[in-house]
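F.,

This is the one I mentioned.
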């Protein structure tokens, strides 16, 4: 009996050996762990911040960790872990593990360290916020992009908030999302990867990356906005407003005395607004202005509605800052 078993062993081992060659990376026992309290995170197709997402883990999710690899440094930590969903989470988003993953788990293999990204260049057309997630009401703004800024985009999503009915947003190499309507070209979906599932994320200032923490969806009142008498349009800019006077004149700068009329809009015409401007002095009917998509300035009083009640409708001066240096 003993002999026959021994003779059988090499035969039984052959398929196992072949398999083992591909499976060596994952032969140690998986470890379960839970996301750190108050943290939701994206599970990425490669262990780098810009990689597309394969899954989104909400608060309290328990994940099964298969192997470790090395990727983007997050808060002094370059260790990423592959979960049973076949994607990577940073060690930093997990509860402290009493042990060392590098010892207790297998290495995922050199292939896992490859940064597989797609890129396309595009140009900003209208003042655009670049946000931590694809929505400009709740998601924090990472940077303000002014017209003519060249940006590099790395993936697209159709699951963002609608801007002029368009839910397509692109992720830039600064790891923030900009709506397609603010760009000169539509997303090139033939070249770019889809970004995958994206959750509601918040900035956490302890790190220079997007970091998620407890949701706080109640918008704080924007104290920089002057009071207005308009209606809550409940929509996102670019936002159109309707002319309420015979004409709304549009000036090359926000002053009826010193600036020139560039164009005029007729009664009831819908005009798209990019941002608001507040004059440094209070002048009747001329303190509050909007910059339109024709890149000229109209007075707030010439429109039926006001955007000055809108949480997050942006101040034009935010886009004047030179953001091009940080976008590289
Ligand atoms: C880890 O989680 C999986 C799925 O929930 C479960 O099947 C497995 O038994 C867990 N392993 C340990 C060691 O707790
Ligand atoms: C970062 O990690 C290095 C090496 O592990 C360590 O020497 C250093 O003190 C750490 N820095 C911080 C801020 O934790
Ligand atoms: C961590 O693990 C070591 C060795 O297994 C054990 O002695 C120690 O009590 C553990 N610490 C905690 C906080 O669980
Ligand atoms: C990179 O990703 C594409 C899909 O987006 C895939 O077809 C390709 O095999 C990947 N390449 C590597 C080296 O992983
Ligand atoms: C940021 O993360 C740190 C560490 O996880 C946490 O202690 C802190 O409360 C977070 N800050 C915010 C604003 O969520
Ligand atoms: C302008 O906005 C209103 C209200 O949001 C909307 O009903 C209308 O369709 C918009 N006009 C255009 C041309 O999109
Ligand atoms: C427009 O310019 C004139 C002349 O410089 C100035 O007196 C006035 O305050 C300006 N109006 C506004 C709204 O800034
Ligand atoms: C401008 O303000 C005056 C009073 O200050 C008012 O009578 C007039 O109707 C206003 N014009 C517009 C276009 O709102």
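My design for it:
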């Amino acid at each position: 009996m003993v002999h026959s078993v021994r003779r059988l062993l090499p035969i039984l081992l052959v398929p196992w050996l072949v398999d083992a060659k591909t499976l060596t990376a994952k032969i140690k026992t998986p470890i379960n762990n839970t996301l750190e309290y108050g943290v939701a995170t994206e599970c990425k197709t490669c262990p780098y911040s810009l990689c597309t997402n394969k899954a989104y883990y909400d608060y309290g999710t328990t994940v099964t960790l298969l192997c470790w690899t090395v990727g983007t440094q997050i808060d002094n930590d370059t260790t990423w872990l592959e979960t049973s969903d076949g994607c990577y989470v940073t060690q930093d988003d997990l509860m402290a593990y009493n042990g060392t993953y590098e010892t207790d788990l297998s290495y995922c293999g050199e292939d896992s360290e490859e940064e597989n990204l797609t890129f396309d260049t595009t140009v900003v057309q209208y003042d655009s916020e670049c946000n931590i997630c694809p929505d400009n009401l709740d998601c924090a703004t990472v940077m303000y992009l002014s017209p003519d800024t060249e940006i590099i985009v790395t993936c697209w999503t159709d699951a963002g908030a609608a801007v002029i009915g368009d839910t397509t947003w692109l992720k830039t190499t600064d790891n923030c999302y900009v709506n397609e309507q603010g760009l000169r070209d539509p997303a090139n979906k033939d070249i770019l990867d889809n970004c995958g599932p994206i959750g509601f994320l918040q900035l956490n200032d302890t790190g220079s990356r997007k970091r998620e923490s407890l949701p706080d969806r109640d918008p704080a009142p924007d104290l920089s906005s002057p009071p207005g008498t308009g209606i809550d349009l409940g929509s996102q800019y670019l936002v159109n407003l309707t002319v309420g006077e015979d004409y709304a004149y549009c000036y090359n700068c926000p002053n009826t005395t010193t600036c020139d009329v560039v164009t005029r809009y007729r009664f009831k015409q819908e005009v798209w607004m990019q941002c608001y401007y507040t004059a440094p002095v209070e002048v009747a009917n001329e303190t509050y202005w909007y910059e339109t998509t024709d890149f000229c300035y109209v007075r707030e009083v010439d429109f039926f509605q006001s955007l000055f009640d809108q949480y997050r409708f942006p101040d034009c001066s935010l886009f004047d800052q030179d953001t091009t240096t940080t976008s590289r």
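The chain has three domains: 31-113, 120-212, 239-311.

Talk soon.
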